[in-house]
Amino acid sequence: MTKNVRVRFAPSPTGPLHIGGVRTALFNYLFAKKHGGDFILRIEDTDQNRYVEGAEQYIIDALNWCGMPFDEGPNKNEKFGPYRQSERKALYKQYALQLIESGNAYYAFDTAEELDAHRKDHEANGKTFIYNWHNRQKLSNSLALSSDEVKAKIDSGEDYVIRFKSPQDETLHLKDIVRGDIKIDTNILDDKVLFKADGMPTYHLANIVDDHLMEITHVIRGEEWLPSLALHYQLYDALGWEAPQFAHLPLILKPTGKGKLSKRDGDKLGFPVFPLEWTDPKSNEVSRGYKEDGYFSESVVNFLAFLGWNPGTEQELFSLEELTQAFDLEKVNKAGARFDPDKIKWFNHHYMQQQNDALIAERYKQSQPELKDIDVNYIEMVVSLIKERASFVSDLWELSSFFFEAPASYDEKASKKAFKEGTKDILTTVAELVNNTEDFTVENLQNTIKGWITNNDIGFGKVMMPLRLALVGALQGPDVFDIIYMIGKNETVKRINAVIASL
Question: What is the per-residue pLDDT for 502?
Fold first, then answer.
């Protein structure tokens, strides 16, 4: 690529960042880093009525948690700043006026009530109202009014918008990296509003102007913006600018595969749809986040990369660096990608195994009140024994509580299976063997007890099942001899005596 690659992620600060937005940011980030380019964050806050306090910082925190810090953006390396559209307000009107001067846009004075009446009239006749070539000469705009009438309306302070003048009887040939060649009949396009009565641009004008001024080379965004592609191409052409390359990513679908995954689906379907927990500043309603639910950022990123992209190999586990090297927009699918909550858990299980035991031990200790006074080094040893069975730190207590406290009861079904005639005598002997083992190591315990079992021709199940039940309270957990070594000689004997008493 001849130009330095520059991409932007341009969310609106209207609430928490949806996981679909994170996927868009990820694909932009991977593309930029693969080509040695820049990843830019731009806050598109032209709609001040929908602005939500704290949303911008949430977006920045989410990107940082995912390991995708922006190179340029609000308060960071502002070479092309400012990066909030509300702070660029003075920039846009000149380009709207330039489009009027060139005949590519016009003033429209139609009120909301007038437009609503037109819509209802069309609906009554089974038609759809479109403000474009076929009716604009009949409406209240500078194409239908004289220049004196237009000047009088503007001078009197009458509200107006500036609309793009879409051409008639033309075929547009557009290119999209993901979708390929696209043909559009301009007769079906409406004359979109570019500049509003409140002095703010619409998304269409603002994002074109900002992308041009910030020298964006590739626009990688969601499929929902595909219907705007024709207008955006025409705006670049009308302003005499070179258009960036476009790539429209597939929708992220609900787990059923039907319909787009929305912000409301998290609570309804029982899994997070936001990277971080979010508290609504107005209602104080809390929405779950993947971080707070115990997911590792690596698993979220790895999972999201496969929603709409495939490397073309059997490999599924990728670090961020490996994703950067493998990523290719040409391998992004057109079809929607189904969100699978079980798959992201699968990723988390794998990343759990790769985590440092000391790090997990710290998290485990902080999350479990019962471990407040336990040495973190001991917890780390426990983690190393049971981690492979866990997908989340929150799984660890159920898998390892017996390392920290004796079982309060014994699984009824397992008890019937393990406790037979003669079990009491067997366990009494095992307790003596444990108590008499001087060099207390896993290997010595194993040799002593297994040797006794073999020499006395006792079935291993007759010994190991009730012994495990005494230590754990159920027929689960890591190697019995690891458990004995970890909890110690006195605690082991105490638990064996407790289960004998319960028999």
Answer: 86
The answer to whether residues 140 and 109 touch, using CB atoms and an 8 Å cutoff, is yes
* Contact indicator for 91, 304 with CB cutoff of 8 Å: no
Contacting residues for 158 by C-beta, under 8 A, at least 6 apart: 109
Place of tokens 């759809």: 128
Q: What DSSP string describes 341-365?
A: HHHHHHHHHHHHHHS-HHHHHHHHH
Q: What is the pTM of this model?
A: 0.91
Could you please state the CATH topology (level 3) that the domain comprising 1-73+250-353 is classified under: Rossmann fold (3.40.50)
Vertex 485 angle, CA 483 and 486, to 5°: 65
Tell me: is residue 263 an annotated ligand-binding position. Answer: yes
Q: Quote the pLDDT of residue 195.
A: 94
Which candidate, 421, 396, 427, places its Cα nearest to that of 495? 427
Q: Under a CB-based contact definition with an 8 Å cutoff, are residues 43 and 60 in contact?
A: no
Can you give the C-alpha Rg of the chain in angstroms?
33
Give the whole-angstrom CA distance, residue 503 versus residue 495: 13
Structure tokens at 337: 């990608």
| CATH topology (fold) of 89-205 | Glutamyl-tRNA Synthetase; domain 3 (3.90.800)
Inter-residue contact 118 to 136 (CB < 8 Å): no
Q: Which residues contact 119 (CB under 8 A, 6 or more apart)?
A: 129
The two three-digit tokens of residue 353, written as one number: 């195994």
Residue range 411-440, pLDDT digits in tens: 999 999 999 989 999 999 999 999 999 899
Q: Which residues contact 170 (CB under 8 A, 6 or more apart)?
A: 185, 186
Domain ranges in the chain are 1-73+250-353, 89-205, 355-397, 412-502
Residue stretches of the chain with pLDDT short of 70: 1-2
Nearest to 59 by CA among 8, 20, 13: 13
Strand 218-222 and strand 161-164: the pairing is: unpaired
SS3 of 244-293: the string is CEEEEECCEECCCCCCECCCCHHHHHCCCCCCCCEECCCCCCEECCCCCC
412-502 in CATH: which number? 1.10.10.350
Q: How far is CA 297 from the centre of its chain?
A: 9
**What pLDDT does 503 receive?**
74
Nearest-5° Cα angle at 188, 187 to 192? 100
Quote the pLDDT of residue 2.
Answer: 52
Adjacency order of strands within the sheet including 38-41: 38-41, 6-9, 218-222, 245-249
CA–CA gap between residue 349 and residue 327 (Å, rounded): 23
Whether 249 and 28 have beta carbons less than 8 Å apart is answered as no
Selecting among 33, 165, 192, 263, the annotated active-site residue is 263
Question: Rounded distance, CA 59 to CA 63, Å?
Answer: 6
Active site residue 331: no
Q: At 106, is the secondary structure helix, strand, or coil? A: strand
